[in-house]
Amino acid sequence: MNLSVKIANVTFKNPVTVASGTFGHAEKYYDLEEAKRLGAIVPKTVTFHPQAGNPPVRIFETPSGMINAIGIENPGIDAFIAEKLPAFRKIGVPLIVSILGHTPEQFVGIMEKLNSPAFGGGIAAVELNLSCPNLKFQTLVAQDPQATQALVHKIKAISKFPIIAKLSPNVTDIAVIALAAQDGGADAVSLVNTFNAMAVDVRTQRSRIGNFTGGLSGPAIRPMAVYMVHSVAKAVQVPVIGMGGIMTADDALEFLIAGATMVAVGTANFVNPRAPLEVLQGIEAYMREHKIDDIKDIIGSLKYDKK
Amino acid sequence: MEKIQNIYKVVSNEKLCPQFWRMTFDAPDIVREVKPGQFVHIRTGEGLEPFFRRPFSVYRAQKYVEIFYEAVGPGTKLLSQKKKGDTVDVLGPVGTPFALPPEGTKQVVMIAGGIGVAPMLILSDVLKKKKCELVLLYGGRTRGHVYPMQEFKDGGIKVFVATDDGSVGIKGRVSALFGKIRKDPQTTFLYTCGPDAMMAAVQDFAGQHNLRGQAACEEIMACALGACLGCSIETKHGYRTVCYDGPAFDIHEVIFHP
Fold first, then answer.
1. The one catalytic residue among A5, A7, A111, A132
2. Integer CA distances (angstroms), B218 to A240, B84, B133, B157, in order
3. Where does chain A show beta strands of DSSP type E?
4. Which of the listed residues A106, A176, A204, B138 has the most CB atoms within 10 Å of its CB?
5. B124 contacts: CB under 8 Å, gap ≥ 6
6. What is the 3-state secondary structure (H, E, C) of A183-208?
7. What backbone phi and psi angles, to 5 degrees, belong to B40?
8. Residue A162 CB partners (closer than 8 Å, separation 6+)
9. DSSP structural state of residue B235
10. Partner-chain contact B233 A29, CB within 8 Å
11. How confident is the model at residue A140 (pLDDT cuts 50, 70, 90)?
């Protein structure tokens, strides 16, 4: 049974990874033997400078999901490389490093550090978190096709690693942005990031979230995420990494059948730390049950005939 | 690494007073490992509602693990419906435990508000070996919020109660009981857990009298493993997660927003 998939020239032993910001590095809590089985691991997004994150309250439970406004709290790229990366490398699973710059120059600065011979390699790909400011238009880069294409192009030109563009669902047509990322040279696109969201405490008439608004994730968004993954997979030629509310193997299979080459388990990690592994085992069981020898026979296998 | 997520059998689940419940479950591995101030993260329902697990301080860990909780929201209400023989999906023990008092401590004062008494019994079980005076100052809204403190009293702990309406103990806030605290920086050690306003008052008192202590904090929590950074609170050293850096913090470190 073959579960391996490829992004650019990198082979992942199976299509199951984790979404950025949902998988910790607390070695004492994670069973490394289990983590080793994943296709890839994506650490929390790292920025050029350390970032303190947003004031509490940072998360709020919603029907079948959560709103978060963590604010990309992270120690910055230098401390990430020195302090966080060794533990991730030790797992022995391909790493997809998620990066975010507040300016194109910061993206370049992070990329140069990852490219540096002193860095020591050990990463499989770089994911650009495009939910970052597009200073010229007061939007996010991921909300503007020109900005997306230009930024991806700029980073792809200097990167030693395959580039994955992570897309925001808060757009009119996500396929347009995906095509722009592809035109910029992206080796893959990953989607969806969280949906803009808000919850109000009716007693105090204030937002439930310290940052006022946040991003919705979890099973609540899954049908919208599957729809977007499907529309992007039909539009682009590069692989799609699908995510958004995956809790079980069946959820993940929806994304694969809709056209995703890889799937990322995100918010489910907070409820069930073994969720990514259970998803992987479930996909294997599905393939055995349906006598499917190669995962590629599942990817994009959606039928359009009326039955 | 030990597997920290397991399914355990409920031994008992009882209502102790109009507000508070106690659940006991059979988890010998947690009993072996847990330290005062640590917590367990429980999936209260089977499906997607409520979505998050719920964190509960370990109240006691002798033969079984005991948690002490208030059935207020959808998660805790579901938990209160569990019967003997049912199972619970538990992650834990997790979190940074309480630091224990330094040598030479003669008086330990636990200051708890409402459900904030939850981590204090397991703490007093450990502190009994320290041979110092143990005091519990407990504040509740009204009679229904005052759990009968017999378990503390049976352990030789001096218990003083204040209620907002005076229905039990003295009338007023728990700060009205601060007179029971010896103001000796060398030999007094404080522990507090409860509403932010109460812990801020304890912090203020500790600051005025140069007393040392620990605060067990609370925040909405998702992963409980230090991964999502959702439960961060403000401290003098920046944001810190309640689940991983805490729940126990130095009392002077936390910036409360009462």
1. A132
2. 39, 28, 27, 25
3. 5-7, 10-12, 16-18, 46-47, 59-62, 65-68, 96-100, 125-129, 133-134, 139-140, 163-166, 188-191, 195-197, 200-201, 206-207, 214-217, 240-243, 262-265
4. B138
5. B110, B134, B136, B152, B155, B157
6. HCCCCEEEECCCEEECCEECCCCEEC
7. -120, 150
8. A7, A8, A9, A10, A124, A125, A126, A187, A188
9. E
10. no
11. very high
Tens of pLDDT, residues A179-223: 999 999 999 999 999 999 999 999 999 999 999 999 999 999 999
Residue in B196, B198, B193, B25 with CA at minimum distance from that of residue B121: B193
Q: How far is A67 from chain B (nearest CA, A)?
A: 10
Q: What are A152's two structure tokens?
A: 């991806």
Place of tokens 């529309």: A231
With residue B126 as reference, give the H or E element that holds it.
helix B120-127
pTM (predicted TM-score): 0.95
> Does residue A306 have a pLDDT over 90?
no
pLDDT at position B1 is: 39
The answer, yes or no, to whether residue B59 has pLDDT greater than 80, is yes
Specify the higher pLDDT residue, B149 or A142. Answer: A142
What value does the mean pLDDT take over residues A106-129? 91
Which residue among A56, A70, A219 places its CB closest to the CB of B234? Answer: A56
Q: What pLDDT does residue A28 have?
A: 61
Closest Cα to residue A39, out of A81, A97, A96? A96
Residue B191 to residue B214: CA distance in whole angstroms: 5
Q: Is the pLDDT of residue B26 over 90?
A: yes
| Minimum distance, in Å, between the CA of residue A168 and any CA atom of chain B | 19
